[in-house]
Write a structure and sequence with these properties.
Distance between the termini: 30 Å
Strand content: 15-25%
Helix content: 10-25%
Radius of gyration: 13 Å
Structural class: alpha+beta
Number of strands: 5
């Protein structure tokens, strides 16, 4: 979802607050109404790697885009339209996990 020119344009230009990262990100809300951070740049589907599996959906009445996580079969072939959860790519993700635990 290209956010430029949409009502979510204010989401564009935000960056991860980690000093190790500073990647461009977009704040979304999951279908379960939880906050989710995704990489701003869409990532093509590549099986076996960190690939785009998050579809951003504009639902009227929401203040943020809704992040819909797709299964691999749904994501297959959607080049350049899906995003990756920022926790999968951020080098400092453990710092922001609830409870501060590492995986």
């Amino acid at each position: 979802m290209d956010l430029s020119g949409s009502r979510f344009e204010t989401q564009v230009g935000q960056h991860c607050r980690s000093p190790k990262c500073d990647a461009a990100v977009i704040w979304c809300t999951t279908e379960g109404r939880k906050d989710m951070l995704v990489d701003a740049t869409p990532t093509p589907y590549r099986p076996g790697e960190d690939y785009g599996n998050v579809q951003l959906v504009d639902i009227p009445g929401n203040l943020r885009p809704v992040a819909r996580v797709l299964k691999p079969a749904q994501a297959f072939g959607r080049q350049g339209t899906l995003h990756v959860s920022h926790f999968a790519t951020c080098p400092d993700a453990k710092r922001f996990r609830k409870g501060g635990y590492e995986r």
